[in-house]
Amino acid sequence: MQIFQDVRAFMSISGARILLAMFLLYGIGTGMLAPMNAVYLDESVGLSKEQIVAVFAVSLFCNIAITITVGWFSDRLRRKKKLPLAAAFLCIIGLAVYMNASDFRSALIGMTIAVAPSGLIMGQLFGMARSHFARKAGELVEMAQLWLRASFSVGFFAGLLLGANIFLIATFRGVLWGNVAGYVCLAVLLLAYKETAGEPGTKTAVRGEPFSLVMLIALLLLSCADAIRGLYLQLVVLKLFGKPEVMSYIWSTQAVFELFFMTLGGYWAARYGSKKIIFLGGCFALAAYLTYTSSGSLPVFFAVQPLYSFFVSILAGVAMGYVQRMFLSRTGFGASLYVFITQTASLIGYFLPLFIQGITPDIFYIPSALVTLSLLIIGIVLYRERGSKDRNAKKPSVVNRAV
């Protein structure tokens, strides 16, 4: 089968395995803390809902500014790995401050230092990876990107399970130290990784995508909906079921499906087009959000995860590749732009639920509306593209009849 041949070819490429390990271990460290962050600020530091949002918003705003600024000029650098390496060390310093936070001010300073530089990590890692595989195996660039992103997801969900169990043994402090360990592992692997420099005469087999501001807006809306779920679902689950570790178990069920869905989505996108697959993923997300608003059953929350896993796989894999292909000659900027979109969406998404009083499942009516608007935009784009193709297909026949 084609997929097994591609996997074997991918694993035989020099540097592929260390890149996989890099994303996997970084994902484990990140996954330990992600579902516990808001809960930590709520229960251990004692912040209010508005203060929690402010901490996330300020740190994300700084992250966004650094990500797009550095992404703009990073392609001028011959070697990019020094950027994520420096960011990893700064994140470790920030986490040291964050884990000793006792009030709003110290939590804000710690999280800002820990989060602001992290935008350099994912964007620049994917920029490095795209350049690496474009020079060594151009025909596998897109699937290589998906498998690396899937490796991060597998690590992330492994971190969720590990973090939930560490929390039961060592409370939030143990989880925070696990996040520190993830950055340490990333730094060690970056030091060991031999970055591929430009090689004359190498060509990529990947076709670019035309720039589309409308599609970027649609992706922003989808990412905004996902950001709302990422922050507020853990708080809603805590209010409904009363156990912080439950959210880690809910998210970890995605790991069972995400690697498969991300691979499947990549092949489908190559066959049917990225926009159609993104539209399909949005439909699955809408179904999940409406389920959150209408059910207070824990088994139902688990059951809806495969639907949401498909959406996340498309948003994190297919959509990322779609944005990067708009800027094939600027890999660092293309990858950073995708991170910029997701982080900007997070910044917007954190504030929108403040219009709903308290923490209730009604919050998920907001991402439902955002996804519906995004689907409408993508649907219009697909309809216009189909109309344009039909008109172009008819032109030769008109000429032939005239002759």
From TrEMBL:
InterPro entries: MFS, MFS_trans_sf. It is a multi-pass membrane protein. Its main location: membrane. It is found in: Cell membrane. The chain crosses the membrane at residues 18-40, 52-73, 85-101, 107-126, 146-169, 175-193, 213-237, 249-270, 277-294, 300-323, 335-357, 363-383. Keywords: Cell membrane, Membrane, Sugar transport, Transmembrane, Transmembrane helix, Transport. Pfam families: MFS_1 (PF07690). The keyword Cell membrane applies. PANTHER family: SUGAR EFFLUX TRANSPORTER A-RELATED. This is MFS transporter.
